[in-house]
Amino acid sequence: MMWRALSADWLKIRGKGIWFLAFLGPVGLIAMQGLNFGLRYDYLRAQYQADWWGGLIDNIIPFVPIALYLGGTLICSLIANVEHQTSSWKQLLALPISRTAVFMAKLLLCLLLLAVSCLLLSAGTVLLGLLLGFGDQPIPYADVLRIGFAAYAAAMPVIALQLWLSLSYRNQTLPVSLGMTLSLVSMFAVYLTEWMPLSWPTLALSAERPWLFSGAGLLLGLLVLLPGALHFARKDVD
Amino acid sequence: MKDTVIETKNLLKEYRGRAAVKELNLNIGKGEIYGFLGPNGAGKTTTIRMLLGLIKPTSGRIEIFGQELRRNRLQILRKVGSLVESPSYYGHLSALDNLEAIRRILDVPKSRIAEVLDIVSLTGEEKRPVKGFSLGMKQRLGIAAALLGSPELLILDEPTNGLDPSGIQEIRSLIKRLPGEEGITVLVSSHLLSEIEQMAGTVGIIREGQMVYQDTIAHLQEQAAGNLSLAVSEPEAALMTAVRRGCGGELQEGRLILPRMSDARVSLLVKELVEDGHAIYRVEEHRQSLEEFFLQVVGGGAL
Question: What is the pTM (predicted TM-score) of this model?
Answer without folding.
Answer: 0.84
